[in-house]
Amino acid sequence: MVFRKKLSRKQFLAFMQAHPGCRVAMEACATAHYWTRTLADLGNEVRLIAPKFVKPYVKNQKNDMADAGSIVEAASRPTMHFVEVKTPEQQGLGIVFRLRDLLIGQRTQTINELRGHLAEFGIGAGKGWENVSKLQLALEQDEQVAHLPVPVRHMAQLCLDQIDGLSERLIRNWLGGFSQ
Fold first, then answer.
1. Distance between CA atoms of residues 38 and 60, nearest Å
2. From CA 151, how far away is CA 132, in angstroms rounded?
């Protein structure tokens, strides 16, 4: 460690621009790949360390100052494994996959909620996306919904609309390709 100085994000960039290139070690966490690319463009040699490799070097309570010391200690080890820096394109693909998983999870959650609520009124269907049409069909049959309170019918339709909207987004964006 050459020096110890607390800086905000804004101050950090200005500070690094004013100093000659050096070796910088950072924990590979949120924004680390962006900062690595930015600092490398300024002539620095940047190394990212996975958090699991920094943790054994934490000596005190977890805070920014203790983490910084631990990162310096970990980076000085000759056998340390460093994380490869991701390109913006690689990060973009990661976002695509994580958001797809999020939408699928939201759709699954909505389907399960709808199944559970309708089961309270004797309307059932199996788990999964493929059985939503059975719930839709049951809600369209007069004998099935005659005993359902009006707010339940409205909320069930709201859930079905939400499921359809999420499914449409998934199909449009992942099966149909991304619009440029």
1. 30
2. 20
Give me the half-sphere count of Cα atoms (radius 13 Å) on the Cβ side of residue 105: 6
Contacts of 166 (CB under 8 A, 6+ apart): 103, 106, 107, 110
Q: Residue 168: which of 103, 108, 105 has the closest Cα?
A: 103
What are the pLDDT digits (tens) for 15-38?
999 988 899 999 998 899 999 999
3-state secondary structure at position 44: coil
Q: What is the mean pLDDT of residues 5-11?
A: 87
Taking the C-alpha atoms of residue 96 and residue 41, their distance in angstroms, rounded to an integer, is 26
Cα–Cα distance for residue pair 43/28, rounded to 1 Å: 19
pTM assigned to the model: 0.71
